[in-house]
Amino acid sequence: MIKVLIADDHALVREGLKQVIGQHSDIEVTGEAKNGQEALEKVWKEEFDVVLLDISMPGRSGMDILKEIKSAKPKLNVLMLSMHPEKQYAVRALKAGASGYLTKESAPDELIDAIRRVSMGLKYVTISLAEKLAAELGDDQNKPLHEQLSDREFQVMVKIAKGNTVKEIAANLSLSVKTISTYRTRVLEKMNMKNNSDITSYLMENDLTDPL
């Protein structure tokens, strides 16, 4: 039996995932968490084969939680499940230790296949993601500018492009306005940009904007 922990801040999403998984006798949801801290506490206290981890939760992001889980339990398989398209976070998640990355638009059969695969210690990647990973092994000079940003810097850049103010981003990520302003400054410096409009234009030109 594959024991699964679902970590997602939306009760409806958790219920939907439980219904899909409940149709298969070899997989069982044995834990739920509505935020990152709750997920960590359950991982520390209980044993799971796979963690289904939402990348966007209140407070600490799924990326932060992923890194802490892998630090505490390196062999625990984490499958990232996100509303964000692969282009935004998939490669970053895999580099941080995730066993796979699925969008919430994925078909139920694909989810079950991914859970079974990662439970065996294997990676689950789509064809398009495999191509991105292959490109990552290429010449560093050909890598896009945003690849040099840290996960948090990239997260802030995406939120700026969506029109969020520094204050709104700070509240959403449970960080101070000063900290977010610092991240924004680093993004502008690393990307050789002058203002928020430049950030928005870059993400649109590189098809990195969130369609949701």
Structure characterization notes:
- It is a single chain.
- Helices cover 50% and strands 13% of the residues.
- α2 (36-45) packs parallel to α3, α4 crosses α6 (127-136) and α7 crosses α10 (196-205).
- It has helices at 11-21, 36-45, 62-72, 86-95, 108-119, 127-136, 151-161, 166-173, 177-190, 196-205, and strands spanning 2-7, 27-33, 50-54, 77-82, 100-103.
- It has a five-stranded parallel beta sheet with strand order 2-1-3-4-5, sandwiched between helices.
- The two termini are 35 Å apart.
- It is globular and about 55 Å long.
- The chain folds into two domains: 2-136, Response regulator (Rossmann fold, 3-Layer(aba) Sandwich), CATH 3.40.50.2300; 144-205, Winged helix-like DNA-binding domain superfamily/Winged helix DNA-binding domain (Arc Repressor Mutant, subunit A, Orthogonal Bundle), CATH 1.10.10.10.
- It has 212 residues and is of the alpha/beta class.
Name a few traits of the molecule.
212 residues, 10 helices, 50% helix, globular, single chain, 2 domains, Rossmann fold
Short summary:
With 212 residues, the protein is of the alpha/beta class. 50% of the residues lie in helices and 13% in strands.
